[in-house]
Amino acid sequence: MTSATLPSGTMVPSLGLGTWKMGENARTADQEVESLKRGLDLGMTLIDTAEMYGEGGSEIITGKAIEGRRDDVFLISKVYPYNASYQGVIDACKRSLKRLRTDRLDLYLLHWRGEYDLEETVAGFEELRKAGKIREWGVSNFDVEDMEELMEVPDGGNCAANQVLYNLSRRGIEYDLLPWCQERGIPVMAYSPIEQGRILRNTELIRIAKAYQATPAQLALAFVMRSQNTIAIPKSSDPHRVEENAGAIGLEISSEDWAALDAAFPAPSRKQPLEML
Ligand code: NDP
Fold first, then answer.
1. How remote is the CA of residue 24 from the centroid of ligand 1, in Å?
2. Within a domain: residue 275?
3. Is residue 76 in contact with ligand 1, taking CB distance under 6 Å?
4. Which atom belonging to ligand 1 lies closest to the Cα atom of 277?
5. Is 80 annotated as catalytic?
6. Residue 214 lies in a domain
7. Is residue 77 part of a domain?
8. Structural domain span for residue 120
9. Predicted pLDDT of residue 6
10. Distance between Cα 126 and ligand 1 center (Å)
């Protein structure tokens, strides 16, 4: 497994597991737990959840999947912006820990920017860190301007990661946000790394993947992980697809084929506002 490094020096796998849409339906719960467990078995030991997903349901599924192996997992959850006051962050974290049936998060993210001052949210995160409830904190859906503002608030420089939309069809961050984070050693965690499946029918992606006996999803994930210090968190509730996604590790693509993929999915030539899903 290749890895990314947080500013603290903590190393995490470059390929993890998303959980959006999990925990919404009792009938599919067992399969969702199985899928996450399969991913953990295959070394995808970073799990991304949020209090928003299934209004806590996804955290419950995640809690079941990590039972008995908590220490092997890098566990991430996120706080709703409207819970991101100083006390709100502390209370939301407590509820998340309960659903996850654990005593700490490895990384706690502000899901997106909302009404509260960053200073207040960061103070809440720092309090949680001192109390041992979270190891590190970070942000999500922050563009360069937001990151610069964050760096100005007390302890803002402790931000450990920025989780943003990034995949072959959404390359805007390569123009500014990705290099900005790389220069500061802050990993970019790419959400929707296969564009929720929408890019998988692209004929060029299919053609190039075939040449490596790989699948379009594997090539799309390899693309995201190709940049320095990026982490991809594909979600699948199907253990077979999780196995497929794990196969993106170690896929070596020639510079000619990367160039062909660049032609099909061009890199940005000017600033694009950060997109969100
Ligand atoms: P992804 O790009 O990971 O795509 C997930 C979709 O693709 C699901 O419908 C899944 O279906 C399908 N899929 C997965 N693997 C394959 C495969 N090998 N072949 C074909 N289809 C496949 O999208 P997400 O939006 O879920 O993003 C990943 C994670 O990022 C989320 O789950 C969440 O944890 C995080 N996220 C964070 C956001 C934020 O604002 N911070 C916003 C959005 C996502 P199935 O399950 O049936 O296999």
1. 15
2. no
3. no
4. 42
5. no
6. yes
7. yes
8. 3-264
9. 98
10. 30
Quick check: CB of 140 below 6 Å from ligand 1?
A: yes
Is residue 270 in some structural domain? no
- The residue among 97, 96, 108, 36 whose CA lies nearest residue 72 is 36
Digit-coded pLDDT (tens) for 105-143: 999 999 999 999 999 999 999 999 999 999 999 999 999
Spans of the chain below 50 pLDDT? none
Q: How far is CA 13 from the centre of its chain?
A: 11
| 80 within ligand 1 shell (Cβ under 6 A) | no
Q: Given phi > 0 = left and psi -120 to 50 = alpha, else beta, which region is 54?
A: left
Q: Number of folded domains in the chain? A: 1
pLDDT of the residue at 1: 78
Residue 102: CB within 6 Å of ligand 1? Answer: no
- For a ligand 1 pocket test, name from 139, 194, 218, 225 the mutation site with the most ligand atoms within 8 angstroms of its C-beta: 194
CATH value at residue 32: 3.20.20.100
AA letter at 95 = R
pTM above 0.85, yes or no: yes
Identify the pLDDT of residue 83: 98
